[in-house]
Design a protein that fits this description.
The structure is a homodimer. Chain A is of the alpha+beta class. Chain A has 18 helices and 33 strands. Chain A is globular.
């Protein structure tokens, strides 16, 4: 660990833990710190990855962690949630209902740029001499901090420090504190603080998971500059969305400086030139503001951005910092997950939770994208995993963010209803991938056919309502979402004795267009029941939605009759009808380099064999665990574990949860590390394109649902905590209505003890490994953790076992 | 019927049958004639259809029936078999093994053009006064004949007659006899006889079944003109294929004429100007020659085309005509199907057979396209139906053409082997659609997954070998084709007790990616057995192909263990595993205008319901009829008939054959008319894009296999003739090795009698409704046809019953 430099008191990266643990999957240059993600030096190969990992965002807009000085950079993206451009979706052979246009997130005007010239030389770490270069994403201050000591090619030395934030409290504001200290005499400086639209793009890729790269998506509409402030206004060419970016500055220079401001077309620039005596500092605060609209006029948008800048300046840098810290203190106070025994994992879990918070906190009216606002991977689209992997964490730690996403789903109901109608279905068919709510999937067997996205919305809705007791939401958006998704299932399925849902694709994308996917069926079953309950709870809303008693009865009838495929011969549930009769994949003969399989084998081969991309039945056993006996879970887990290749980052979290439940705690621990390090360790090789937000949400799920054993079947919360050998302690807290509940499990020798405590609220009833627990006041309840039952070892496909996590203390 | 005009003795269209029967599905303007397709007058709506129906072709190249004068026209196409251009195949989301480029037939240099100017006026039937305009495709002379009497807008009258042929005997030659007779005094004429490349295209369509329209696909490479001859040489831009078109002329004008010749770029022109006294005629013979190559040089190709023109001129028009007639006389002598009782159907069957012959007769090294050489529908691609619907007719009537197609399949084995390897399979995977042998399908669930195309090649191979006794083919291409297709099945299927083939698409494209499609399985079963037999017959070839005794044993083992899905509860075979458990389609609520379903419903809806696009299990019952009892056939036919919507032109022929076999003779008759009239009646609304060659081959199959009851299971030919009520007599002839066998069935009151006779050959053994029949010498064997067994009526989906064919005598 090389994180001690101590030159900047606010940015002391010296490991607070004092140790120097390293892991095989720890990336070079990154340091371990309980509350920071730190990195020393500049590695050319890591530029794009660090841009992703150091992303700052508040859910409304996000800025990748590129350097203020602009270079070196790979993808210096800035993204506004919901701001997209249309692009054609070409089909080699078109078909009815194939979407003809897609949506792609746009790299909007870059406001991070503060180009620095020292004497004649651009400040660029690839030239001159870098004495130190330290960066840190601080999870408590909510800032991206850097400090660089550098000597220019012509011998002048400076120390550049910067601190950047995207405000959680003021959602259209970002700010950068930028300081240059002269380490030599009479250093001449020039600073160009820019707004730059239509930045050059990185080159396109042929990986189908990547995004469509748009060339110069923005058309200049207006610009203006006065004093230290400038604004650029642009519009997208096809989607016709308008955006404004503004900047304002506060400058402190001991001996004064020359400044100019200008704006036009794609560039606005505030120029500062100054001469610094040795030891003196130039300090500049750059305020940034973003706004967009599909209907507001150019002047209105311009005024909006300028007003935000004025507010920002009035509040001032220090107060912005304080508010940011206070916001995060409040979050961590009730959300933090603590573990003892693995500082690297501790860091990764907090980084993960921080990014999930960042991409959702202030989304307000927009969805939660698969990459958050950290990159253009997956075109910036939102998928089902937002609802099932990110929302559980938010529901129990930051419910307002979960609510925002669900309200966005509700707001896209017109598109989802239209899509259902286009498909000949009732209710609402939520899109597989989208920005605005319109289906943007170009490959229907793994898009349109994956109707389980509707059950994800319903599941998240029901969970949110149960966890928060948000009656207003329940009576409005909640009941509407549950009703329209329930209607979809009724039109999609049919009774034949049992209720069958044929021709769909479940979460496992290596098996497509199947009958009675168990996951889809049991999730639809819950959806139908929850819709019936919601309508009965909210008869007024139900009546507005024209739900009749007969309709509710049909929902309950279908739920009761739901087909649940089971292979009697093997004694396991079938992922879908006849799945277990399929040919086996030849894992022994599939070399490492043939993963992910989808890039090396045709779909038809993958679909017809027993090879599983990602947890499917396992996810059903997590979310509908009350339907399975412990013995069934154990047998099913072993069967599917042996056939799951984890080619999706969505898999390991669920496998961890089920591994923990079925007594494979060390396997669960290995999976946890895989989940939490998916981006820090770049385990899928594409961190450059953005964060895996679902996996990051999964990190929390493994804590709470895996080692915490938390379940919320039917809205009733239960726990069954248990630690793996590597950990000595786990503590997490969840919100439930007006309460905050703390669960802690500790190890003493072979014994494990769980402690339950109310942090807020008056009383709470739950269970501990099935045993009732009543919490009231601040009294802790301490209970022994039952011994792990004897379990048969499980295996993964050849060469697909997770990396064993072995800290090298 | 308005086909008597009598002005041109050679083109007397006067109905030889003397009656005037009309049918609801008879198209306006077309007349009924036993040996001609005639049409009177010019209907703007029918221009494209008549261009298709009047196509002349010899399998090497084809010319649509556009008028010599060039206008009016919609698609004046000329196509050379195998001559294509590449085009990109875009995918909204790409995937491993998705083809990235496609192939599209090219409209090559048009040589039909003979533009005529009468005085100042272009000869164009949309202007001036048309007194008569008669055209006829003559099925015995193999010519397209026309006669037009017309007065120009400025009052000068002419009679234009023309006769056009594409030579069956000289495969690179076409010729046009063009006569203009002055009906007024001193008519000034100008004639532009052209070669024109890169003709303007019709507008593109959004129907996925249509072709990609290429804009200016040809690049000029060279041109030359001398005397009355001119040549244009072009090359495609991407596929880099070179082609040459040449023309030469012989002119007869009573008082002489001025002529010039010129050539350059995309146009070559022979100009004739003359003055004709009343009653005199200008007569011109235009010889046309086409050649192409992917490796021959420009000079070589030019010489080739000029040599062909020289030969053509030497032979002369009259001899070309005679040879054409002789070729067709020989064909009809052994191939004709005669029926009494339905002259319209009689005509349609002969037109169909004529077009199948035209598109295959001289293909020599190229495949038999779905549209022949009559249009750009389906991009000019060859599909499985060539092997299964067109080849049976050719095998039994023109075996050399069947052989040509199969040799093309053999020549594309390198591409098919490469495709199999790309897909992770053994042997050869023949493409779903192609020109060169490379897969060009852009939608894999109905392309790549339809592996039954391989069994179609194998089936055609085995049939050809059995029917012809062609030992050389059997020992070479035949064994190779059967072996490589058999190997594909072994790698595609797996043993699990039974041998299963999962994740494939059968002929019914409304059901995709299923397990154990019965058709695919039983066809694969035959394929495996035939491959084993062929290798045992031809041990030398087998050894060259590295076939071992163990491999053959595995083939036989898989064939013996083949899974054949059967629904015990319903007592019917299942089209695929669990098919009969699927939800039913709501036919009652599907209005007429929602057909074809694929243009109005998403695939996912169609795939998961019991709705069948085209005969699938029925085709299995035809081709593998020996696997089913008569009771099973009856029950299966009834079950699937009620769920088959016939959205494919490939369906009705098979339904007709099975309807006839199961005793529904009048239904079979209705289907026969639908099959035979698919283009003449434009029943699918897309005759403009080209002929439905498979359906045309199906017309013959309904005669031979439907009402003739002919089967060739295991290479053994049997008959079970039976007439529907509407017909009094059916006669057809088939070749079997060195024999020609005639089967005739006649009706006398309620009794039907079959007569079997050898036209060529010494002896032949067959069966009549199961009863052994031995033919020898020219002795006819007359046998009573057993009475039709009592059958339950069958039904079709609501509003999808075939039109009842009721002649209005």
């Amino acid at each position: 660990m090389t994180n001690g430099h101590g030159q900047h008191p606010e940015q002391s990266y010296a490991g607070e833990t004092g140790d120097s643990i390293e892991y095989a999957d720890q990336r070079r240059g990154y340091g371990i710190h309980p509350w920071k993600l730190t990195r020393s030096g500049l590695l050319p190969d890591d530029v794009a990855a660090s841009e992703t990992l150091f992303t700052l965002s508040n859910g409304h807009f996000g800025m990748r962690g590129s350097l203020e000085e602009g270079e070196p950079r790979v993808v210096p993206g800035t993204y506004i949630n919901g701001f997209y451009e249309q692009r054609p979706l070409p089909h080699a052979e078109s078909g009815y209902g194939f979407p003809e246009s897609g949506e792609t997130v746009v790299n909007v005007t870059d406001g991070k740029l503060i180009r620095l010239f020292v004497g004649d030389s651009p400040f660029d770490l690839r030239y001159g001499t870098t004495h130190s270069h330290e960066r840190a994403l601080d999870l408590r201050t909510g800032t991206l901090d850097r400090s660089t000591e550098w000597t220019s090619p012509n011998g002048q030395s400076v120390r550049v420090t910067s601190r950047r934030l995207v405000s959680f409290v003021h959602r259209s504001l970002a700010a950068i504190e930028y300081e240059v200290e002269a380490l030599d005499d009479n250093v001449y400086l020039a600073i160009y603080s820019d707004l730059l639209a239509n930045e050059q793009n990185a080159t396109a890729s042929s990986d189908p998971r990547d995004a469509a790269v748009l060339d110069r998506p923005l058309k200049s509409e207006d610009s203006g500059a006065r004093g230290q402030q400038a604004v650029l206004l642009h519009r997208t060419r096809r989607s016709k969305l308008r955006m404004a970016a503004g900047m304002d500055h506060v400058l402190e220079v001991p001996q004064g400086a020359e400044t100019t401001i200008e704006a036009g077309g794609d560039l606005a620039r505030y120029t500062v030139t100054a001469q610094l005596p040795k030891g003196s500092k130039l300090r500049m605060i750059k305020y940034l503001s973003y706004g967009w609209s599909h209907r507001r006029s150019t002047p209105a948008l311009r005024d909006q951005v300028e007003a935000a800048l004025a507010v920002g300046k009035l509040i001032g840098w220090d107060e912005l910092l304080e508010k940011q810290r206070a916001y995060l203190d409040e979050f961590w106070q009730h959300a933090d997950v603590e573990i003892d025994g693995d500082p690297g994992l501790q860091q990764a879990i907090r980084v993960s939770m921080f990014h999930v918070l960042q991409c959702s906190a202030r989304a307000e009216g927009q969805g939660l994208g698969a990459k958050g606002l950290s990159g253009i991977g997956y075109d910036g689209h939102t998928f089902w995993d937002a609802d099932l992997f990110a929302l559980p964490m938010l529901t129990y730690t930051k419910p307002s963010a979960a609510r925002d996403h669900l309200l966005w789903r509700r707001n896209t109901l017109p598109e989802a209803r239209a899509r259902a109608a286009e498909l000949g279905l009732a209710g609402a068919a939520f899109p597989w991938r989208t920005i605005t709510g319109k289906e943007c999937s170009g490959y229907w067997p793994a898009g349109t056919a994956a109707f389980h996205v509707n059950s994800a919305v319903a599941n998240a809705t029901a969970r949110y309502v149960a966890a928060t007791g948000d009656r207003e939401f329940d009576a409005g958006a909640g009941t509407e979402l549950l009703t329209e998704t329930a209607r979809l299932w009724m039109s999609l399925g049919h009774f034949d004795g049992a209720f069958h849902i044929d021709g769909v694709t479940g979460p496992d994308e290596y098996t497509a267009i199947v009958d009675d996917n168990l996951y889809t069926n049991v999730m639809a079953q819950a959806n139908l029941t929850e819709a019936a309950d919601a309508c009965e709870r909210n008869p007024g809303t139900a009546s507005e939605l024209r739900v009749t008693a007969e309709e509710i009865a049909e929902w309950r009838k279908a739920a009761a009759a739901m087909a649940i495929p089971y292979d009697e011969k093997l004694g396991v549930h079938a992922q879908s009808e006849d799945f277990t009769k399929r040919d086996e994949w030849d894992f022994e003969d599939t070399a490492d380099e043939f993963y992910p399989l989808l890039l090396h084998y045709p779909y038809f081969q993958i679909y017809r064999k027993q090879v599983i991309k990602q947890a499917d039945l396992a996810l059903a056993m997590q979310l509908r665990g009350d339907l399975f006996t412990p013995e069934q879970k154990a047998r099913n887990f072993a069967y599917y574990e042996a056939r799951t290749v984890r080619d999706s980052s969505l898999s390991a979290a669920t496998q961890a949860v089920l591994a923990a439940e079925t007594g494979h705690l060390d396997l669960a621990y290995d999976y946890w590390a895989e989940v939490a390090l998916v981006d820090l360790g770049d385990l899928h090789g594409n961190v450059d394109d953005g964060l895996h937000i679902a996996s990051m949400g999964g990190s929390w799920q493994v804590a709470a649902c895996g080692f915490g054993g938390m379940r919320d079947h039917g809205g009733v919360i239960s726990f069954a905590p248990r630690l793996p050998h590597a950990l000595d302690r786990l503590r997490f807290r969840i919100r439930s209505e007006d309460r905050v509940v703390e669960v802690q499990v500790t190890r003493t020798g072979q014994e494990q003890t769980a402690t339950y405590r109310l942090i807020e609220g008056e009383s709470f009833a739950t269970t501990h490994h099935g045993q009732p627990v009543e919490l009231s006041g601040s009294d802790a309840v301490e209970l022994a953790v039952p011994a792990v039952p004897q379990v048969e070892p499980v295996t993964q496909p050849a060469r697909r076992e997770p990396t064993r996590r072995r800290p090298q203390r």
